[in-house]
Each structure stands twice: as structure tokens, then as C-alpha cells.
Automatic annotation (TrEMBL):
InterPro entries: Glyco_trans_4-like_N, Glycosyltransferase_grp1
Segments of this protein annotated with the region Disordered: 388-421
TM annotation in the entry: none
UniProt keyword Glycosyltransferase present: yes
Keyword Transferase: yes
Protein name per the record: D-inositol 3-phosphate glycosyltransferase
């Protein structure tokens, strides 16, 4: 029997932050701790006076979290960074005290950069995972448009230098791995899904006609304005509703836009919600929409798939990896095309809709979190790894008839709810 590992997981963001990198780091840490490993998380403190070391509970599991004194990013409501001038010293002190078997960083910007240098100088095995697209960060910068391309190039070169110190580098999909290799000048980047526990999500026993759901940060890089404009184009006889679930700095702008377009009474912006409400909103949907053009995987889309929803997503970056018979792609930033694809789902026959539901459940099963944990355990131990295969054979259009029972009892393990809820 192999011995448990002492693992340090670091990142610039961690729960309670709500974003893909924080969600993955939280699920990974909890899953590893649940398997008996000693897990230490190092992340930026969530505010002044909140730094320090304490045992925290996440996903029903307790492990140690070291919160570093941090600074807020100007103009951003939640993003914070550990003090960069102290990070190498802090990293060295922690690694000397903990003597871990492996360090796994989730962002190379500040915390990961410091721990990469400290781990490498001490001969500690180092794994790096990329969740960043610098094209997204430009939305929160003051860099003039004419300078953004060279700045992005310089940032990717810098990322390549930090990731180049690693014993292994991962990112969530093969498409994003190819992109990272090309932009950062790296070789042999592993594609390892962020993973999802499908049994945590609930499949509705009925089709919830007309409910379109988006889940994610309500910020500019998600291109939610495209979804609102597309929604306003839908024929009134569909009696559709749009639920935008999540917090962010564009809530007021999108509410005003919906009012301006004459659909304010049918667009709901929930703000931040609990995990329970988020999952309930997905269960109550008929179709999920993801208009973002720079997703490295999109955990939110996988959550929707685990809830049995067809998906309409932008034909950009890694999203096509999640669409094959379970919905439709649309031309990025094209609200007319998005409206047309949403209408296809909303007007689909029950048989067609159930077929899309079944395919979503079938596809998301390949992203099981236990496979992700197995892969990272092997990487931590320095074993040879074959990247998990999350690509199912392309769906043939003449697949057989799917009944409601067939579509809602998929092997993904998704649970059902009482229709009265």
C-alpha cells in the first residue's frame, strides 16, 4: 500500500472566492484530504486581518489553510494578491517547516511564482496547473487596446518561464493544453479535467419549458451581454425567461440593458447564491447558455450537463469540447446566432430534447472527479501518466429513441428530485 503524501496546494484564489480556479483547487484539496493525504493550502487572505494558519472545512472535509496577507486588485470586487515582495520568503519558510512531498500551484502570478522558486531550490517535486487566459485579464486592465497584443505575448513568455520549472504541467482540456504549449513555449502539457462529482447535481423529472440559465461570474469576460441581447430576440410565443446566476460588477448594467430591450420583467439577476440554490436553478432549467469566448474548460457548463441540461455555447476555446449532440454552438459574440440556437432547443420535440439531455449526462460522466484525483496522485508520485480520455466517440444523428426514464437514469449518478419541489 502506498503511503499518504504531504501535499502543498497554492494559488492566488481559493474558496470562498467563486471562480473556476478556486472551485477546482477547493475540490482537489478536499478530495485528496478525503483520500487520507495531508493537505496544506496556501492562498491569499480574503481581506485585511484574515491572514494566518487555521484548519478550515470545505466540501465537508477539514484541512489546513495558510492565508497570506494580501492586497486588493484595483477596480475588482474580490480579486486579491499576496504581497509579491514577501512571497519567496514566505514560501521558503513554509516549505522548510512542512517538508512536503510535492507542491502544486494553480496560478503562476504571485503565490505560485514564489512557491515554484522555493520548491525548485529545495528539490521538491513541482506541479503547475494553468487556469488563466491573459486575454481575459485585459478586461480588468488599463492597457490601451493597441498595446494589448504585445503585452499578452510578454505575459505568456513570463508564464512559460515559471511553468518551465515544473516537473509536470497540466491544464483542463487538450485544446487548452495545445494553446498553452503554443503561447508559453512548453512541451508535454497534460490535459486533466477539473473534474466534477455528478451525483452532487439533480436532474429534474420534467422538462422546465422556457427557462434559460447562465451560471458564472457576472463580469465582462463572460460576454453575458450577448446572452441578454439574444434573449430579447426570441419570439414572444416561447414565453421564455433568462436566469443569470452569480455575482459580479455588471449586474446593474445588465439589468438596465434588459429593461432597455423590453425584457426586464423576464430577466432575473440573482447575485451571489448558495451552492444549494445554484444547483436548484440548474435543475429548474430547460437549457444552459455559456456565451464566454475564453473558457479553458468551464466547470459551470459541466455542472449544467450533470443537471441534465442541453447546452448552447460559444464556438470558442475549449467549449466545443463539451458540445456534441447535447446542444449547439453559436458564432462568438453573435447574438442573432445565439438566439437562433436557443430557439432550436426551446422548440425541439420532447424526444429531441431528451436525447440532448441524455448526451449531456453521458458526456459529463467522462469528467468524474475520482479520475482527476487518480491522475494527480500519479503525477505527485512521479509516475508515468496517460491523460484521461474525456472525448467520447462522435454522436451519430440516427441514435435510437430515448425515453424519459432512459434519459434521467444515466450512469453519471445524477439524482432526481420530487416534482413538487
Amino acid at each position: 500500500m502506498t503511503r499518504p503524501l504531504r501535499i502543498v496546494i497554492t494559488g492566488d484564489t481559493f474558496a470562498p472566492d467563486v471562480n473556476g480556479a478556486a472551485t477546482f483547487a477547493t475540490q482537489l484539496s478536499a478530495g485528496l484530504a478525503r483520500r487520507g493525504h495531508e493537505v496544506h493550502v496556501v492562498a491569499s487572505a480574503t481581506g485585511r486581518g484574515r491572514q494566518g494558519t487555521r484548519v478550515e472545512e470545505h466540501e465537508g472535509v477539514r484541512f489546513t489553510v495558510h492565508r497570506l496577507r494580501s492586497l486588493g486588485y484595483p477596480g475588482h470586487e474580490w480579486l486579491r494578491f499576496a504581497e509579491p515582495w514577501r512571497i519567496v520568503q514566505n514560501a521558503g519558510s513554509l516549505l522548510d517547516a512542512l517538508q512536503p512531498d510535492v507542491v502544486h500551484f494553480q496560478s503562476h502570478l504571485v503565490v505560485g511564482r514564489g512557491f515554484a522558486a522555493a520548491a525548485r531550490s529545495r528539490g521538491i517535486r513541482l506541479i503547475g496547473t494553468n487556469h488563466i487566459m491573459f486575454e481575459n485579464l485585459m478586461d480588468h486592465s488599463n492597457v490601451p487596446g493597441v498595446l494589448q497584443k504585445p503585452v499578452i505575448g510578454a505575459l505568456w513568455s513570463d508564464a512559460g518561464r515559471v511553468f518551465g520549472r515544473c516537473d509536470a504541467v497540466t491544464t483542463p482540456t487538450r485544446r487548452s493544453a495545445d494553446y498553452l504549449e503554443r503561447m508559453a513555449g512548453l512541451d508535454h502539457v497534460h490535459a486533466v479535467s477539473c473534474g466534477i462529482r455528478a451525483s452532487d447535481y439533480t436532474v429534474s423529472p420534467k422538462r422546465n419549458h422556457g427557462t434559460i440559465v447562465f451560471v458564472g461570474r457576472v463580469t465582462s469576460e463572460k460576454r453575458i451581454e450577448t446572452a441578454v441581447r439574444a434573449f430579447a430576440r426570441l419570439p414572444k410565443d416561447l414565453d421564455a425567461r433568462l436566469e443569470i446566476v452569480g455575482g459580479g460588477d455588471l449586474i446593474d448594467h445588465l439589468r438596465d440593458l434588459a429593461t432597455e430591450l423590453g425584457v426586464g420583467d423576464r430577466v432575473e439577476l440573482t447575485g451571489l447564491v448558495s451552492s444549494e440554490e445554484l444547483r436548484a436553478r440548474l435543475t429548474g432549467g430547460e437549457v444552459f447558455v455559456m456565451p464566454s469566448t475564453a473558457e479553458l474548460q468551464s466547470i459551470a457548463t459541466m455542472e449544467a450537463m450533470a443537471s441534465g441540461l442541453p447546452v448552447v455555447a460559444a464556438d470558442a476555446m475549449a467549449l466545443p469540447h463539451l458540445i456534441d449532440g447535447n446542444g449547439f454552438l453559436f458564432a462568438p459574440d453573435d447574438d442573432a446566432d445565439l438566439a437562433a440556437q436557443l430557439e432550436r432547443v426551446l422548440r425541439s420535440s420532447d424526444e429531441e430534447w431528451l436525447r440532448m439531455r441524455h448526451r449531456s449526462l453521458q458526456m459529463v460522466a467522462a469528467h468524474d472527479i475520482e479520475t482527476t484525483l487518480d491522475t494527480f496522485e500519479a503525477l505527485y508520485r512521479g509516475e508515468d501518466v496517460v491523460d484521461p480520455d474525456t472525448e467520447l466517440p462522435h454522436l451519430e444523428t440516427d441514435s435510437g429513441r430515448i425515453t424519459l426514464d432512459d434519459a434521467s437514469s444515466d450512469a453519471s449518478g445524477a439524482q432526481h428530485v420530487d416534482e413538487s419541489r
